[in-house]
Amino acid sequence: MDDQEKYFKVLRKIGRNDNLTQRELAKEVGYSLGKLNYCLRALQEKGFVKIKHFKRNLRRNPNKINYLYSLTTKGLSEKTKLTLNFMKKKMHEYDELKKELNDLKK
Q1: Which residues pair with 52 in a beta bridge?
Q2: What is the C-alpha to C-alpha distance for residues 41 and 73, in angstroms, rounded to an integer?
Q3: Residue-range domains of the chain with CATH
Q4: H or E element: which one contains 80?
Q5: In this structure, what is the dihedral angle of CA atoms 35, 54, 15, 10, given to the nearest 10 degrees?
Q6: Which tens digits make up the pLDDT trace of 41-59?
Q7: β partners of residue 50
Q8: Which residues of 37-73 are buried (b: 16+ CB within 10 A; e: fewer)?
Q9: Residue 30 pLDDT > 90, yes or no?
């Protein structure tokens, strides 16, 4: 999987639900926390994701800092571009498989 596919998965999940914790987001996209953190930092550096810090009133650890991830306008534009590229790639794969099946039938 190349970087664009990794970024696409993360941008897509954040675009659907920006209330996910980092642990939930990692589970949703199937990445380790370290890999997700790397992707989030890269997306932030590119200006696609905004990361905000906030404190929650949790009984277990009141000092814990949580993060809120949201797409920037630039990130939304990039997500759209990556979605189109992803769909083109899948359509090409479909056409190739269809051709292969037709060749096998002959």
Answers
A1: 68
A2: 17
A3: 3-105 (1.10.10.10)
A4: helix 73-105
A5: 0
A6: 999 999 999 988 766 555 5
A7: 70
A8: eebbeebeeeebbbeeeeeeeeeeeeeeeeeebebee
A9: yes
